[in-house]
Structures are given as C-alpha cells and as structure tokens.
C-alpha cells in the first residue's frame, strides 16, 4: 500500500524559491572581484537568477548541457548555482588552481559548452580558448565597465549584460529529481581527475542533513561565511543549505588571505565560518598580529584535512568560537561526519574534550561507514583497530562521470582511500590517507599524529610527515617543519619535545626545516611533492 503523501521532486530550484518567498530580506554580502563590498538580499538574488535562467534558455542551453565556471565565492557564482541547475543543465565548477593541462582535460572530458569566469582568471580562459575544447561561449563575471580589453576570446560577453532585458519570472521545469545538477572533478592527486556528478535529489538531501544542529547547524540564526571555495565540492553544500534555511551569506570573493577574512568577519559579524586548516592558519595569524578577538564567531567548521589540536585551542580559547571538525570528500557531496561532543562528555576535562574534538566525528544520518582490512573483511569498530574506511549513503557517488572505473566500489560500498578507526560511540578518526601511510616494519605510523604532536610546539607553524625508504624497516618517518615566524627551534630541541610525547618507534628518524610546504589545489599539503623532493633522502 502506498502512502497518501504528495509526490514532489527534490529540486534545487525549490530551495531558491523558498528563499525568495520566506527569507527575501535576508542579506547576501559579497566582497566583489572588482573591489567593493556589494550588499543584496535573497529576494534580489532570486530575481536575478530567474533573469539568468531566461537568458541561458535564450542562448540555447538545453537540459543536461554542461556549463563551466572558474570563479570565486561571489553573488554571481551563487546565481549560476541556482540558474544553471534550475533549468536542468549541469554546473561544472572548475578549480582554477589545477594545472592548465588538467583544466583543458576536464573541460573536454565534461564537454563544457560555456565558460563563466571571474576576470582574475582571464589568463586561464585565454588558455582554454587556445586549445581544442567544446567551449563556444565565454562570459566574464563582471559588468561592462570592467570588461577585459582585447581579450581575443570568442563570443566574449559581460555577465551583467545578460540580465537587464530578461523577465524576472521563470517557470522552473519539474525535473526528475535524479537529474544531474552539478559536476565537480577530484583534484587528481592520484592519476587524472575524475568527475563526480551530483543530482538534485542528492544535493537537496545533503542540504537538509548538513543543516541539522548536530551536523553543521546552518541556520537563519547565523551569518554564514563559506571560505571553502565554491569551486570545491559546491562549497561543501553551504550555498544550497543557506538558501533553504535563510541564513545571511557572506561571500569572500578573492579575499582569502587572513587580513581580508578578519575584516569581513568583524564587519559582517560572521557567526559561522567554514574552511580548510590552511586558510585558518592565515586568519589566526592575522588576528594575532592585529591583536583582535573575533567575538562574533560562534562556530568554525574545519575539514578537508585533519585539524591540528593547536588550531582547536586557538579558536576556542582566544576567540571563544567552538571548533567543529568535519570530514568528507568530493565523492560524498562532501559531508560524512561532524564532531560534536555528547552529553556524556559534559564533565570531561579540557584535555579529554580536545582528544574527542581531534577526531573527524560521527556519521550524520544518510551516511553509513565501516572499516575493512586489506582483503575486504570488516574489522571491529573498537576505537583502536584501524582499517580502510568505506562508505555508502544518500549522497555518495555510485560511479564517475563517463567512466567504467569501479575499482573504488565493493558490494555497494565506496572505498574512501582513508585509513581510520571508529570507536564504540561511532566517532571516526582518520590516521592517514592510504597513499600517505608510513609503513615501518609492517606496522602503520600515523602521519597525522606525528604532525599534530609537532604542531603542539609553539615554534612550529606547520608540519608534514612522510615515509622515506629504510633498509631494515622498509620506511621510516621524516618530519618536515615550517617554523613559526620570528621563532627559533633546533632539531635537537624539537626531537626532545617529541620524545616526551610519542611512542619510541613512531619517533621521526629525521627532521628537516623548510620555508613553506607545497599546497595542492584544494588547500591540502601535497605529500606527493614532498616525497618527490625528499626522494633518496639518507636517514
Ligand atoms: P581531493 O582528493 O581532491 O583532495 P577531497 O576534497 O575530496 O579531494 O578530499 C577528500 C579527502 O580529504 C578525504 O578522503 C580525506 O583524506 C581528507 N579529509 C577531508 N576532511 C578531513 C579531515 N577532517 N581530517 C583528515 N582528512 C580529511
């Protein structure tokens, strides 16, 4: 027997229309690429989205067409999120930090017919125009006055000139909720980038889930700042969720440095900010130099790579903002787990609470997790046994775009490529990515643990542990360290500090100081480059 409930598809256009009807006066604030701060509302955004939808249809865009963006977190990018998916086309957000040959590869692989780009990325647009691709239209995300001159780009138009003569009403198509809505390529840290194709259904379900109070708690009570780029896994789904719940949205544009973020957080009274550890390092340093406390901040969501304990303490103790450690991946839309304390931790000591917060957290409803050994058999979730982390759920990729590659799937589960433990309360903790583990004498040493322990030293700004070849043990850890500005420490002193905190066989065999660590296109330390740099290193 069927239930007697209305059968309505889960659609991204409904999120926008909801924002327009019930949160129309809530602000959307952008630090524009042209410079000034632009202030508007969800109501105006929705009108412009409908104009854009009319313009796109008028330009011949059909359901299923892929339209690409090379853009920062801005209002115009937000409008594309809703207009492109709303008409049934697929928004392909490209990471501008990818090497140019990979950009061309993914534009071709995706079959993109239009490119919308911020003027910052004009050189990349020109590169794409100079190689064979299916791109037919180039649209600069700016107004007439700021158009690049003599760009040589075919059919170049200004975004703002697409909108004025269009009606601000649009009849959104009743799409099948399983239709594709957006496309995001993994950063290709191993092999070529792979396309993850999200659907309206997965996106809307993910929006509900991330908004839950035990997840990212996205809410009308908040002023939300997604620092995580809109070219990286849909800015963790925040734009969609913010529309749905009516959160004030603050978009940082190209100003991802510490000082610009600090100014925006203070002026807009941001209460919830989301991003990867590398951007928070910059923000915390800027706040320290300026002697400022970010008093409006209630919550800082940190994910994308493991959050060092020193960062949790800095936000919580110096700025009074709760850190919410979260984990996920492009193939997971991205959210899988969020780390909140449970009632049983109420009387825990500060140190015990910190040790929980360093974990990546508990799964949110819609995501299932398990650990398996090398042969694919399930291993215990006892908090100490580590295994390959697998997932399945409502917003997990079932395959890759135009690919038969099923190597990451097993019996309906997806191999995340992470090595983790899961404890009796369901807290998952990542010890490594499987390709980064350091295997010494057949046992795994957690590079994340080594790095975090090193970063507890006040003179250490950043640390990365990699395995280097060792005759007897196969591999041994080398710790590569960036010193805190204006601070000194010797290798011997750091070694002594670590010896007091690590089991003996985990101790790095060597320490090297460097000026900076290589950072990849999604803001993570590029261990592969480090391994190349230190290939043949003599311990
Ligand atoms: P890429 O593979 O392109 O770097 P993703 O952004 O999809 O792209 O990366 C997902 C991976 O990032 C996860 O599999 C995991 O290794 C790592 N990751 C994400 N969040 C965390 C976290 N909180 N702690 C540790 N690692 C994390």
What does this 3D model show about the protein?
The chain has 539 residues and is of the alpha/beta class. Among the domains are: 12-26 and 41-199, Rossmann fold, CATH 3.40.50; 363-435, Luciferase, domain 3 (Roll), CATH 2.30.38.10; 436-539, GMP Synthetase, Chain A, domain 3 (2-Layer Sandwich), CATH 3.30.300.30. The protein contains 14 helices and 26 strands. It has helices spanning 12-22, 42-58, 75-86, 100-110, 122-130, 200-211, 238-245, 258-268, 277-290, 309-319, 350-357, 447-455, 491-499, 527-533, and strands spanning 27-31, 37-41, 66-70, 90-93, 112-117, 137-140, 156-158, 180-185, 195-199, 223-226, 248-251, 272-275, 299-302, 322-328, 335-339, 362-363, 367-372, 387-393, 409-410, 413-422, 428-433, 438-440, 443-445, 460-470, 474-483, 510-514. The radius of gyration is 23 Å and the shape is globular. The structure holds adenosine-5'-diphosphate. Adenosine-5'-diphosphate (ADP) binds next to strand 14, strand 20 and strand 21. Adenosine-5'-diphosphate is lined by residues 186-187, 189, 303-306, 325-327, 329-330, 360, 416-418, 430, 433, 522, 524.
